[in-house]
Structure of DUF3046 domain-containing protein:
Amino acid sequence: MRLTQFWERMNQQFGESYAQSVAKDYVIAELGGRTIEQALAEGEPAKRVWKAVVATFDVPQSLH
């Protein structure tokens, strides 16, 4: 998954403004207690980060 695809899915799930807030502020256990922004900045693959988002939030099947 490319980073652009990741952000498209984030925006579809949360809306553009809230997606940025979730990425910046929400600590996700599946990412080792990091935020989305931290995980991506530290080189975590976008696909793995997206899987953590899916596991944490009620993401519709169409966005999996």
Q: What stands out?
A: The chain is about 60% helix and 5% strand.
